[in-house]
Amino acid sequence: MTAAVDAPAVPLESSHRPELASTATSRDLKSAPRHRWFYFPHSYSYRLVNAILDHWQFPAGGVLADNFAGSGTTLLAARERGLAALGFDLSPLAVMVAKAKIAPYNERALDDGLSKILGCGSANSPQVPHRLSRAFTEAELKEINALLRPIRALRGAPRNFFLVALLCAMREFSRAVPDGGWFRWQQWPDRSEEIRDTFKRTVALMLDDVGVLNWPDGGRAARVRRADARKLPLGSSFVDGLITSPPYPNRHDYSRVFHIELLLLGAAESQVTKLRHRSIRSHVEAKPPPGHTRQLRQYKPTATLQAALKALPPNTDRRIRRLLRGYFEDIYLSLVEVARILRPGGRAAYVIGNVRYAGVMIPVDEITAELASQAGLDFDASWVMRLRGNAAQQMGRYGREPSRESVVLLSKATG
User: Would you state the pLDDT for residue 3?
Assistant: First the structure.
């Protein structure tokens, strides 16, 4: 693999895997049972998880983890293969969605839950954050609250099931439309009379999926909890493998993209801001994680990272340099945790996308492989799945330069 800046080439054993190009996207998730309930725009496919597990010849009794669980693609793919699965994410939205996807369901209990929800009458809208009152009309919020109150009264898996259904259905009505790393505001007339029917259609689709894909006996253990990938609440040498994709250092902030969903879940504006500050430093508003000074004493910016930072023009926004330095510190901290929780001989895969700032390509895959070595992991190989076009503003100023989207394959030594 050739370095994108004037720096010593990293001796990565890379192979081009164009047959995996479509698995780097969320395309498959749009129609797959349970996966389609709710997914993040930059998710990878369950087919990529299966390709990695097949390559590893992952044992049938193994435990698979995901330290950036997102909407639960890795966990659900593991569940479908009968594997034990453990997921972690800082976002309460991600944790709730992933829990809903991997849960076993009693279909009668879901039918009873739906009857209770639809049997409740309308209710006055409580005081809501400004962004919610801007995203929905007063009448729409009244209808949403009439569904939300009985859903919150439910317990366990049904509660998460119907919360996901409501959030998915409400996307059709929200005037805050996701657009890249933020959202844009749209305007249209009140549609409150459509909300209940849209919710029922969404639930019907999800119930069909439960009929197709379910684990009535519970199956192997599958759990997800809210936690920071830089400090996992998990014992050492606990898992056999890990497949994940940390946020790319592209300035996208998912607490902004999914701000409306977080507010509907009951988060206060201050809690969303706290989540934004605590998240991995892939965007400029995230802050250094507290309590990691000791672990970072062993960290050294790699030669490839230093060369990329040096290649940035002097007039580059200083926040970009800070973002990149912080991002790779956080990736290193996450890899230290991966090395700790993997059993000897265990495997890990990081799905990575390179980025470009001020015309300089940042080889995230190469830097991640170098940091894995610092963290105590062995680099096995890199699969280049596809070459993505750079952002329009970058292309207009600096020309087109495709950026790699890769799977960095790692392992923990047996000795």
Answer: 37
User: What amino acid is encoded at 95 in this protein?
Assistant: V
User: What's the one-letter identity of residue 310?
Assistant: K
Please spell the DSSP secondary structure of 287-314, one letter per residue. Answer: -PPTT-HHHHTT----HHHHHHHHHS-T
DSSP string spanning 23-87? GGSSGGGGTSTTGGGS--TTPPPHHHHHHHHHHHT--TT-EEEESS-TTSHHHHHHHHTT-EEEE
Q: Which string of DSSP letters, residue by residue, matches 96-112?
A: HHHHHHH----HHHHHH
Q: How far is CA 386 from CA 217, 239, 364, in A?
A: 40, 29, 14
Please report which residue ranges of 239-356 form alpha helices under DSSP H. 254-257, 259-264, 269-278, 293-296, 303-311, 318-341
Strands (E), 337-399: 342-353, 355-357, 360-362, 378-388
Tokens of 276: 């934004």
Tens-digit pLDDT profile for residues 175-202: 998 876 678 899 999 999 999 999 999 9
Placement of tokens 């954050």 in the chain: 129
DSSP SS3 for 228: strand
* Rounded (10°) angle between helices 156-170 and 195-212: 130
Instruction: Give the 3-state secondary structure of residue 327.
Output: helix
Listed residue (60, 23, 58, 62) closest to 43, CA to CA: 23
- For the chain, the straight-line distance linking the first and the last C-alpha, in angstroms and rounded, comes to 29
Q: What would the pLDDT profile of 266-278 be if each residue is shown by its tens digit?
A: 999 999 999 999 9
